[in-house]
Amino acid sequence: MKSEILSLSEYAYLAEISLVLFVGVFVGAVVWMFRPGAKVAYEAMAKMPLDDVNPVECLAASERKK
Question: Model pTM?
Fold first, then answer.
């Protein structure tokens, strides 16, 4: 029934565009998550809530690159 309704619409191509967009964003997120050097950063972030000796202050994006 859904395909019959979409076939009568002039916007039937939007389903394919949204699927391609979603897959692209998903693949980009997976690549970003498993990029080289990410494991060290994720391990450090995982230990932050329990680290009372070295508290981490919130840094602005411009200060992180220094």
Answer: 0.54
Q: Residue holding tokens 């565009």?
A: 17
Sequence-separated (6 or more) residues with CB below 8 Å from residue 55: none
H helices present in 1-64, as ranges: 2-8, 14-33, 38-47, 61-64
Cβ-count burial 14-29 (b if 16+ within 10 Å, e if not): eeeeeeeeeeeeeeee
- The closest of 27, 48, 29 to 38, measured between CA atoms, is 29
Summarize pLDDT for 42-55 with one digit per residue, the tens.
888 888 877 777 76
